[in-house]
């Protein structure tokens, strides 16, 4: 993982790491995932390797989770047409769950997905520098309960979508997602199939990364074209999920979701995706970009290949959450963020988590220090991957600022945290 939001392209053993990092209901299908907790045929086991745990959510509600397969029968598969004629996605919906009626807790990753994630072609090695097989990723369990009934005390639920970094699975921010759901939100996490290093579908079928046809490109124009396609596919995925929300709300959630109050957040490529989706689709009312550059440059962002969201700005609120590597969290030191800042008409704020690195806004900040204490450390060292910020303080700050932002923008509840520096979180530095 890099210390600043940048893009690196190497061979297939190192994923493209980037600061990027619609159909009617009858034209698609959605079925509950039967693959949760199942090991795919021949998947290697890491049992006996170091394990780690996620912290409990802080909100007043228990958390439920339902996994769904969505098929867009109007859109051809853009990355692997030989594998599927149509675009298929896996999503999970995390929501407030009724107490005392919970099902089994949902694993952080299904067994087959965890085995691939921790293998030589998985995101643990490619994005984090973890040695293949060095951790038992399947042993981590989230705090959501599978298919638990929704807690009626939570009322109608604002909807927040989550998009992970390039190569990462939709589960790679489970601690933050579960926490937001525990505060009364329906959080929809989206896997970007054939771009994530692995996505497991019902029946145990594993779809692995296919965004490179042959060797990853090195020519700047080819790199830029690939990044443009990545973001375009991600935005199309997100808009498809938005299209499906009303139908899913009626058929699976009894009308408790409120698609009229929809926000989005993401990390790295997912942060770029959140901002670009807001630019392209007015249904997303508010967004958080966690350390994602907003231009199509295969290296240090230089402002030469800006996205439309950076060139045009937004008329709705966006929170930029940066990391501390080489001062990159300040919008004035990132050309794509600086362009967005100049051009946006909506509310905006920029905070930087002191002592953080690019992976600090993911589950890596919580899990990797635990694994390192057991001898499983990233190749570049723990500080290079997740910085020097205390894991509990990083988690507390991320949770507080994301929840405060969506409470303010989707609920009209303002705790004042985003008005300026706070004694509660001296780690968070505001840029003006």
Automatic annotation (TrEMBL):
SUPFAM superfamilies listed in its UniProt record: alpha/beta-Hydrolases (SSF53474)
InterPro entries attached to this UniProt entry: AB_hydrolase_fold, TAT_signal
Segments of skewed composition (Low complexity): 33-52
Signal sequence, renumbered to the chain: 1-35
Span list, region Disordered: 33-59
Record has Lipid metabolism as a keyword: yes
Keyword annotations: Hydrolase, Lipid degradation, Lipid metabolism, Signal
Record-given protein name: Esterase
Source organism of the structure: Streptomyces castrisilvae
């Amino acid at each position: 993982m890099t210390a600043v939001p940048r893009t690196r392209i190497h061979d297939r053993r190192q994923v493209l790491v980037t600061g990027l990092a619609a159909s009617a209901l009858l034209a698609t299908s959605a079925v509950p995932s039967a693959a949760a907790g199942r090991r795919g045929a021949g998947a290697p086991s890491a049992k006996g390797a170091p394990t780690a745990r996620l912290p409990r959510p802080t909100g007043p509600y228990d958390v439920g989770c339902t996994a769904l397969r969505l098929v867009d029968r109007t859109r051809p598969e853009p990355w692997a047409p030989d594998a599927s004629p149509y675009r298929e996605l896996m999503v999970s919906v995390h929501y407030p769950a009724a107490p005392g009626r919970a099902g089994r807790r949902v694993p952080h990753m299904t067994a087959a997905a965890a085995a691939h994630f921790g293998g030589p072609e998985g995101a643990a090695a490619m994005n984090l520098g973890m040695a293949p097989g060095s951790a038992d990723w399947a042993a981590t369990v989230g705090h959501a309960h599978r298919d638990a009934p929704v807690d009626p005390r939570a009322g109608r639920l604002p909807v927040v979508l989550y998009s992970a970094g390039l190569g990462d699975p939709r589960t790679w921010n489970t601690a933050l997602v579960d926490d937001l759901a525990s505060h009364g939100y329906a959080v929809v996490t989206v896997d970007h199939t054939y771009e994530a290093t692995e996505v497991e579908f019902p029946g145990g079928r594993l779809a692995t990364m296919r965004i490179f046809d042959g060797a990853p490109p090195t020519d700047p124009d080819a790199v830029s074209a690939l990044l443009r396609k990545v973001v375009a596919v991600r935005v199309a995925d997100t808009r498809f999920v938005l299209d499906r929300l009303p139908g899913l709300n009626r058929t699976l959630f009894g009308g408790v979701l409120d698609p009229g109050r929809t926000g989005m957040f993401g990390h790295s490529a997912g942060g770029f995706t959140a901002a670009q989706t807001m630019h392209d689709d007015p249904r997303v009312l508010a967004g958080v970009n966690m350390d994602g550059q907003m231009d199509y440059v295969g290296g240090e962002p230089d402002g030469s290949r800006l996205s439309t969201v950076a060139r045009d700005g937004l008329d709705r609120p966006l929170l930029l959450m940066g990391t501390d590597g080489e001062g990159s969290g300040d919008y004035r030191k990132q050309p794509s963020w600086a362009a967005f800042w100049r051009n946006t008409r909506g509310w905006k704020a920029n905070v930087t988590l002191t002592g953080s690195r690019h992976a600090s806004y993911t589950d890596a900040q919580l899990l990797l220090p635990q694994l390192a204490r057991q001898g499983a450390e990233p190749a570049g060292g723990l500080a290079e991957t997740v910085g020097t910020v205390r894991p509990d303080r990083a988690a507390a700050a991320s949770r507080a600022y994301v929840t405060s932002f969506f409470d303010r923008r989707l609920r009209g509840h303002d705790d004042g945290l985003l008005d300026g520096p706070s004694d509660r979180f001296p780690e968070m530095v505001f840029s003006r």
